[in-house]
Amino acid sequence: MSGKRLDERLFRAWGAGALPVFDEQAGRARFLERLAAGKRRSGRGYFMVAAAALVACAVAIGGWRTLSTVSFMTAGGEGHVGAWLATSSANELPLTFSEGTELVMAPGSRGRVEELGRTGASFLLERGEVRARVVHRSNTSWRFLAGPFEVHVTGTALGVDWDPARERFAVRVDEGSVVVSGPNVGAPQVVRAGEQCVVDLPLRTTRISPRERGVIADADVPLDAGSDALAADPATSLSPSAAARLPGAPASWVKLDEKGDYDAAYAAALGAGLGSVLRASSADELLRLAQVARLSGHRDTEREALVTCRRRFAGSERAAVAAYELGRSSSPSEASSWFDTYLGEQPSGALAREASGRLVEARASAGDDRGARDAATRYLARYPDGPHAPLARRVLVGAHE
Amino acid sequence: MSARQRKPTVLSAAPRPSYGVIRSLPFEGDETALVAAMCNGRLDAGAAFYDRHVRAIHALVFRLMGPDGELDDVVHDVFVRALESLPRLREPAALRSWLFGIAVRTVGIRFQKRTRQRWLRFMAPEEVPEVPVLPATELGEALRDVYAILRGMHADERIALVLHRVEGLPLEDAARATGTSLATFRRRLARGEAKFFARAGGRPALDVWLSERDKP
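Structure tokens for the assembled complex are given below, as produced in the milestone run.
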């Protein structure tokens, strides 16, 4: 080192220096989502050996049904992945799945079967209520997605409510147990038979409490799903997403993403034709594709997926999430406008607090001192104890970074 | 709907009292119990695993990468990789140092990927998204220069410098975290220090941090 030594003071100060804002709660939820998915996949080595043996046996005895994906029927015939399902204000819509599970969409509800697997399925509830009796087997894997919430089920009777307008979520369990994750829930919560979990995002309250058996409606949190019920009859038309692939088959890149192999997932999306993937994917898939692109280091594609999501699903909650993600991946000056966009479209959305904080950060970084102070004032008024509160206070006293 | 299956629960509008219970399910147990519970897929153990280590990992990743728009993603990636490797962990009691090793490798892979992409796509270093989080203080100014220097260094040398000099890991532990022999780590560290110091010269913000005896 030519006789020179680095001054230890610098390294000590470096090691003890302040860290950037980090949303631990969001990070934990993201990690636990992956953990829950891994649990479903049973990815451990000895399970893989057992699974291989099971596959061999199944093939040997002609048990092809074990290997086939679940299918489902609606009142209008065979159902398809990705097809939007809607009920009028007076009618219910029963869905019957080949592995024995029954779902009933209550009047005034909208949703879709998002994914079919060999041991279960994912149902996305856009709004309203769905009641289900999931058949329990050793490897049952069912998910209910409602807004930002996710309910993992291995066999139970339950009801899920989601009111996107009021941002109120409820799950009520009659039999078995489920695991609920999502904003304001903290660590994933186990809800057992005879209990209900009600989350009110605007009020930031989460309650798990006993419920009377057989009672679905909650006097404390009325979910008026039927008040603006759809006039349409049950819809069974295929979405572009479903039309672009074989019925019941999730896109291969999605499967690779679930395994955490982002490079391979990105390559698979490219192999399928990026243009057609962008045209055919659902809003959630586009957000997922953007994440795959980001984690595999392809920021141009990330941006393209997010912009496509905003264009194709303009006005939806997912389009607003795309705006938020665009803000995260943009330069500070551009980021400000994207966070503004999110807050304009979802002022009380699940990401409103984070978007408000990042708006402060972006404006301050872009040298927009006045805008940063405005954003900081608004942030502190609404989230005085939020993760960006220290930064907002520094901005207001003119000592921000 | 098939006849053999039961009807779903019947709706009722009957009111019920609210008990207002907020439940959390903390995991209690040492690192060995934690690893065993996670291998069994327990989500509460996963939450505890994350809560116990995320701050240290976030700090390590930040010091290795500096202000960076992908910081959150890299931290997430560390935990996902840990999750996938957990069944192969031989010493659950050494969970923290094992996780450090994963963090170092994850950051190293990210550096290598960026290097490849810059070369292939002619992306200038300044195009890599950066989140300015360094305060406008004497130290903040110095760290801006520090990270500017680090960006121009080889990933292995940069990692060695941060692990030993900033994180304070003993040479043996740092070598283990990088998956190299002690001799290899020493060579990388020496090269890293030499380059760093050579490039620190002439930067006023760093001058004040160099002791009188260090100056030429």
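The CA atoms of residues 70 and 129 of chain B lie 7 Å apart. The two ends of chain B are 85 Å apart (CA to CA). Further analysis is deferred to the final report.
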